[in-house]
Amino acid sequence: MIRYIILRLIYTIVVIFGVSILVFIVTHVIGNPVNTMLPLQATDAERMALTHELGLDKPILIQLWDFLQSIIRLDFGNSWWQQVPALGIVLKRIPATLVLVVSAFALALVIALLLGILAAYKPGTLIDRLITNLSLVGICFPPFWVALMLILFFSVQMGWFYTSGYGTLKHAVLPVLTLSFIPAAHLVQIIRSSVAEQLNSQYITTARAKGVKEIVILFNHALKNAANAIATMFGFDFGRYLAGEAAAVEVVFGWPGIGTLIVDTIGKQDFPLLQAEVFTVALVICIINLITDISYGFFDPTIKY
Amino acid sequence: MLKNWKVIITVLVFLLLTVNMICLAQEKIVIALQGEPTTLDPQFADDGNMRAITDNLFDKLLVLNGKTLQPEPCLALEWDQISEITWQFKLRENVKFHNGEPFTAEDAVYSIKRIIDPAFKSQISGNFSTITDAKIVNTNTIMIITDGPDPILLKRLTFLDIVNKKYYENSADNIISTEPIGTGPYKIVEWNRGRDITIEQFEYYWNQKPPIQDVTYRFIQENSTRLAALKAGEINLAVNMLPEYLEQLPSYKTVNSIEFYFLRFNTIRGIMQNKLIRQAVNYAIDKEALAEALFLGNAVPARGQLAKEAYFGFNRNLDVYPYNPEKAKELLEEAGYNGEVVELISERGRWMKDGEISEAVASMISDVGINVKLTFLSWQQWLDTLFDLEKAPDIMYSSNGNDLFDMDRFYQAIIKTGGPQSAYSNPDIDKKIDIARNEMDPVKRQEMYEDLAQLVYDDPFGVPLINLKSIWGISDDLEWEPREDGRMLVSEMHLK
After folding, report:
1. Which of B380, B384, B433, B437 to mutate: most A Cβ within 10 Å?
2. Closest to A43 (Cβ–Cβ): which among B121, B398, B420?
């Protein structure tokens, strides 16, 4: 187990290095950030001065070497726009995204478990078809559209929640609800199919023949054995959302998370900040993948590391 | 008995007035900006979200009149040009900074030197590139020295925020960028990162105290969310509303913005060297239709130049280049145009409806028989193309914002040979631009710019398309008239 985790951590470091280098290359070929930073009217002399200040006139390999050292020291330098350490800016944004994504996934999991098990328990019935189709519809609605509809109804019409902002429950309800849609729909489908598969297997028939209670069969046997498939989907979605997939929802609701920060940074071509963001995001995804993998052993004792 | 009544009524009236005054003094508003400021050090960044806030926290030596755009006294009471390159400014006395320090000549000189110091790396230092030095004459007089005669110096100074020397010299960068200290009518209360910034009235402000007591700025990037927040009554003022929203807004104000959309011709290489074809393209485009159809009237056709009437150097004799497709076809024939490909490069997403307008323009040009090839680039690629003459396409879509409101800006950047965005070259015109830049007689200088405007109209540098209007969504209870320079001064707002 310990050996497995150490091995995975080494993989993680390799992945983060790889991703960082990729981002370095991409950011350095999309155009000169000096042009984005200065007003359109700036003179050539001003452009050259800023290029020099930012070290962008150094040979690209030297810039890459400086950059690699900065990753090892975990010091990405100051954000070009905000003039404060880049990593600090990113870390300050994590709590807001964490609150949003964790609440949304908790909600999604509760909804999905209820609906998914119900559908699996009564396969082929009207209720099963209703739930399955509803989840398909859920996946198809783009989150920014759902967000706007919810704002129009609950904030503008009813006046129950705030349209945007951060800080209280009244601010959080709509973004959490919006964000839970797609993960809930994904999870309903996974839960339904994997629980239904378990319910069809022979050990369930045996258990039923022994007279085990249905509720025990459902939760202790079927759901537990379906847990690995659910955990895979959950971990996959959770990591993605935490790492910026929630950006559209954050932007619509003016939620000060990492997603809005990334959108903003890309527009401004703030390289140090962008690199700190990608580093953090890659790290988060790797950690969540690791936790997901370890959880398999917990649900299924036959898996050994 | 009657006497008693009088007393009671007097007391009641007095009480009512007091209560009323207390209520007035409690006036609070919420303004939604499009994003969070990157810093609140107004001398450092070129950032509209920041400026919306810092313009209320800092005073400048001079301030522009919101209608005429003429510089008027602010922290400087009067000024004199002593020689071609030296100016003397008499400063206002009994002015206090938010930290209680008195405003002196030292602060003024420090503020000027700080922003022009190359080591400070100010993103707006270009606005002050003609200033070489500043000196203290006595406690309330300073001297500013320029590198040559500078007719725009006064306008430049309306962009130079005056900071407190003692505080800015001795504080750490992260303090300076988040806890600004100026002499303005409002002072900072707090900045909740990612959420909002609150400012409140400064009790020792030197001028009349404004009616609004405090302001919270929220950051809402998404246009439709700002609209929803305004409709839900959460905010009083929303920036950058879209023309389509007008019907839904509780109330709104518009003013012609500083943004001019235009096409730039490459007169140095390729097919657009031919003046007749450049004129044909000007005739081919229906600017009225663009303003009406795409912006629902919230834009006005540019009057043959990239300037509003209040700009220094605006030529009143020029009008919108006429729309005349027949004439365009004739000119093309006269020019011997033979279906050669004309490249039009544009971008999408930076300015309102930039993609739509490029498509409309391309189809108008192709309607008169020009074989136009429209290409959209990413913002970064577009910028690289704009600033690199080697990459200049035949026609390039761009937008120009002249924030000094003086035509020197435009001629230096877009017309003069080798200017950062120039794809034009005419030695005679270059000479005229240089002479105008150093001409201190405003009447003569105005004439020179009118002459230049006519020259680049007749031998077109491009096509001035439209001047956008800025639209602010406003709650029913807020009273405010937007300024020609687009600044949002809370001191000019009040609640009904």
Report:
1. B380
2. B420
In terms of Cβ atoms closer than 10 Å to its own Cβ (0-12, 13-18, 19+), residue A252 is buried
Q: B23 falls in which pLDDT band (50, 70, 90)?
A: very low
Contacts with B, A 108-147, CB within 8 Å = none
> Which range is least confidently modeled, A63-72, B238-247, B463-472?
A63-72
Q: What is the pLDDT of residues B164-174, one digit of tens each?
A: 999 999 998 88
Residues B18-30: what's their mean pLDDT? 63
Helix (H) or strand (E) holding A261: helix A258-268
Do B304 and B319 meet the contact criterion of CB atoms below 8 Å apart? yes
Q: Which residues pair with B135 in a beta bridge?
A: B143
A251 → closest Cβ in B123, B174, B222: B222
| Interface contact A36-B387, CB threshold 8 A | no
CA distance B375 to B2: 86
CB distance from B179 to chain A under 8 Å? no
What's the pLDDT score for residue B7? 61
The torsion angles phi and psi of B360, rounded to 5 degrees, stand at -65, -45
Q: In this complex, do B228 and A53 lie within 8 Å of one another by their Cβ atoms?
A: no
Which of A278-282, B273-277, B468-472 has the least mean pLDDT?
A: A278-282
Residue A217 clears pLDDT 80, i.e. is over it: no
Structure tokens that stand for A189 in this block: 């489908």
Q: Which residues of B touch A31 (CB under 8 A)?
A: 378-381, 383-384
Contact between B189 and B198 (Cβ < 8 Å):
yes
Which residue has 């709104």 as its token pair? B252
Report the DSSP beta bridge partners of residue B219: B33
Question: Which residues of chain A does B413 touch, with a Cβ-Cβ cutoff of 8 Å?
Answer: 40-41
Closest by alpha carbon to B481, among B246, B254, B258?
Answer: B254
- Residue of A26, A30, A83, A154 to mutate for B, most B C-beta atoms under 10 A: A83
Mean pLDDT for chain B overall: 91
**A residues 248-277 closer than 8 Å to B (CB):** 251-254, 256-257, 260, 263-264, 267-269
Rg of chain B over all Cα atoms, to the nearest angstrom: 25
Chain B residues with beta carbon closer than 8 angstroms to that of A253: 225
Higher pLDDT, B369 or A303: B369
